[in-house]
Specification:
The structure is a single chain. The N terminus is likely disordered. The chain is α+β, with helices and mostly antiparallel strands and 485 residues long. It folds into three domains: 289 residues, no CATH class; 113 residues, no CATH class; 56 residues, Arc Repressor Mutant, subunit A (Orthogonal Bundle). Helix 7 packs across helix 9, helix 12 packs across helix 14 and helix 12 packs across helix 15. The strands form four sheets. Strands 1, 2, 6, 7, 8, 11, 12, 13, 14 and 15 form a ten-stranded mixed β-sheet that branches. The chain has a three-stranded antiparallel β-sheet with strand order 5-4-16, with no helix packed on it. Strands 3-17 form a two-stranded antiparallel ribbon. Bound molecules: zinc ion (ZN). The site of zinc ion has 8 residues, from loops.
Length: 485
C-alpha cells in the first residue's frame, strides 16, 4: 500500500569508461604502447607535446573503436571529428587533449545486463576516441600526491589510444553497474578492441550517481572516481548511495560534487571539484582532417566481428544443454570457452562443463594460473573424462588424478596405472563382497531379512576395502544379488 510517508530510494547510475585500445602504437605517433617499461623510453615530439609536432591518426585504433561500437549495436557516424579539449595539468604538456566532442565515431547502442532482478538494457550514449595523458608519479609516499616530496612524469603512457564509452543513466543498482562493466569488458575482449584489464588500468571507470526525486525527476548527481575493480565499483556505489540517502533523510540536499571511494575504510570523501565540460572550450583539432567512413568500410568491419559473448552464451545453452550459469562461466573468458569446446566435442558436454567450470577452474584459481598456461591440455581432459565415462575410474579418483596432472602434466592413464586407481572388475569385486559378508554375518543376516537400511553399511565396508576403487552402484547390485533381497 502506498502512503505519503513512504519514500523509496531509486538509484540512478550512469557510467563512463576509458579503455586502452589494443594497438601496437600510440594514437597519433609511432611510439610503441608498452606497460611497465622504464619511464620515458617510448616518446617522441608528438607524444611529448612539442610545439609544431604534427599528429597522425592511428587507423587501427579507429578500426577497433568502430568494431567495439558495432559490437554494442551502435550507429557509426559517417563523419567524425577530433577536437581539442583544453585544460592545464602537468601530465598534459600541450595544454589540451585530442579527443572527440560534438562528432564522436559512434552513438546509440546498448548492453543487455543480467541482474538478480532481471535483465536491464543499458543504453550507450556515445563512444569516442582520444589520447591518454602522461602519468604523474608522486615520490616520497605510496604514490599519492598528498604528502609527497615531489612528482615525476612518465610519458610512456602519453598518447596511448583510449576509447571513451558513456552510458545513459539507465543503471538501477550497484550490482547492475558492476555487471555492466563486466559485460563491457567481455565485449571489448571478444572484439580484440581492448585487453580491458582493470587491475592494469586498461579499463577505468567513473560513475554518475543520484537518487531519483519522489516526483520521478532526476536528483542531483555526484561523480564517483577511483573505481579500479569490479568489486570496488559495487561497494563504492553502495557507499555513495548510502551517503546521499542519509543526506536526504536528514532533510538536506545532495550537492554536485566529485567523490572518491576509499576501499580500505569503506568511505567516500569529497575531492577538488572538477571543471565542468563547458570550461574545456573544445574546438576542432586543426591538424587533423575529419574521419569519413563509407558504408562499405563499416560493413567490412561488421563482417569481421567475432561471435559476441551474449550470442556465445545462448549457443552454449542451446547446443550443449548447459545451464545459464555454466554457460556464463565458460564464456566469460574466450580461452576458457575455446578450451571447453575442444573437450565438449569429444565427450559428454555436460560432464565437460562440470569438470572445466568446476574442478579445473578451482585449481586454476588456487594456483593463479590462466587456462592458456595449464598443463592439463584439452587432450588430457578428454582422456580423464573418458576414463570416468567408461568406468575405469570413479569420479572421486578422477579428482585426485586431475590434481596430479595439473601439477605434473602427465597423462591421466599413466597416473591411474601407477597409483593403482582403476576400479575393480566384476570378478575381483565379487570376491571382496564375499569377504565383507563373511566378516559381517549379523548385518548380512539383517539384510536377508529385509532390513534395507543396513545395506549402506555393507556398501561402505566394500568401498573401504577397495580403497574407493569401485562403483557404488555396482557394489549395491552385487550385494543385493548375494543376499537375495
Ligand atoms: Zn610518440
Amino acid at each position: 500500500m502506498e502512503t505519503k510517508e513512504r519514500r523509496t530510494y531509486q538509484a540512478v547510475i550512469g557510467l563512463e569508461f576509458h579503455a586502452h585500445v589494443a594497438t601496437r602504437t600510440k594514437m597519433f605517433c609511432g611510439c610503441r604502447v608498452a606497460y611497465g617499461d622504464p619511464p620515458n623510453t617510448h616518446t617522441c615530439p608528438v607524444c611529448l607535446g612539442h610545439p609544431g609536432a604534427l599528429p597522425v591518426i592511428n587507423e587501427r585504433a579507429v578500426e577497433l573503436g568502430v568494431m567495439a561500437g558495432l559490437a554494442m549495436g551502435c550507429e557509426v557516424a559517417p563523419r567524425a571529428v577530433f577536437a581539442r579539449k583544453n585544460y592545464f595539468y602537468p601530465d598534459l604538456p600541450k595544454g589540451y587533449q585530442i579527443s572527440q566532442y560534438e562528432e564522436p565515431i559512434c552513438t546509440g547502442g546498448y548492453i543487455d545486463v543480467p541482474t538478480s532482478e532481471g535483465t536491464v538494457r543499458v543504453r550507450i550514449q556515445r563512444l569516442h576516441l582520444e589520447e591518454d595523458t602522461a602519468k604523474n608519479v608522486h615520490v616520497g609516499t605510496s604514490g599519492r600526491m598528498h604528502g609527497s616530496t615531489g612528482s615525476l612524469i612518465d610519458f610512456n603512457r602519453s598518447g596511448t589510444p583510449l576509447m571513451e564509452i558513456v552510458t545513459e543513466p539507465d543503471i538501477p543498482s550497484p550490482e547492475a553497474a558492476r555487471e555492466t562493466a563486466v559485460r563491457l569488458k567481455e565485449i571489448l575482449q571478444a572484439v580484440g578492441a581492448s585487453e580491458a584489464d582493470m587491475e592494469k588500468g586498461q579499463l577505468r571507470c567513473e560513475a554518475n550517481v543520484s537518487i531519483r526525486n519522489p516526483d520521478g525527476s532526476f536528483g542531483t548527481k555526484t561523480e564517483l572516481k577511483n573505481i579500479n575493480s569490479f568489486r570496488f565499483m559495487e561497494r563504492g556505489l553502495l557507499r555513495e548511495l548510502r551517503r546521499q540517502r542519509e543526506v536526504l533523510e536528514a532533510g538536506g540536499q545532495v550537492q554536485q560534487r566529485t567523490m572518491h571511494y576509499d576501499p580500505e575504510g569503506d568511505e567516500v570523501y569529497e575531492t577538488r571539484s572538477k571543471e565542468f565540460a563547458e570550461d574545456y572550450r573544445y574546438f576542432p583539432e586543426p591538424d587533423l582532417l575529419p574521419l569519413e567512413f563509407t558504408e562499405a568500410w563499416i560493413n567490412e568491419l561488421r563482417s569481421r566481428l567475432p561471435e559476441l559473448p551474449e550470442a556465445m552464451r545462448a549457443r552454449f545453452v542451446e547446443q550443449y544443454g548447459l545451464s545459464e550459469y555454466d554457460a556464463g562461466v565458460l564464456t566469460s573468458d574466450r580461452e576458457l570457452a575455446s578450451y571447453y569446446e575442444k573437450v565438449a566435442f569429444e565427450v559428454d558436454p555436460k560432464q565437460a562443463a562440470n569438470w572445466i567450470s568446476g574442478d579445473l577452474r578451482a585449481l586454476l584459481n588456487e594456483a593463479g594460473t590462466e587456462i592458456s598456461d595449464t598443463k592439463v591440455t584439452p587432450q588430457r581432459m578428454i582422456e580423464l573424462i573418458g576414463l570416468v565415462e567408461n568406468g575405469t575410474i570413479s569420479r572421486s579418483a578422477a579428482k585426485d588424478v586431475l590434481a596430479r596432472i595439473f601439477e605434473s602434466g602427465e597423462s591421466p592413464s599413466a597416473v591411474v596405472e601407477r597409483e593403482g586407481l582403476a576400479q575393480m572388475g566384476a570378478d575381483e569385486l565379487s570376491g571382496v563382497v564375499e569377504e565383507v559378508i563373511s566378516a559381517n554375518p549379523e548385518e548380512a543376516q539383517r539384510v536377508r531379512e529385509g532390513d534395507k537400511k543396513v545395506i549402506g553399511f555393507l556398501i561402505g565396508q566394500v568401498m573401504k576395502a577397495t580403497r574407493g576403487n569401485a562403483d557404488g552402484g555396482q557394489v549395491r547390485e552385487i550385494l543385493m544379488e548375494r543376499l537375495g533381497s
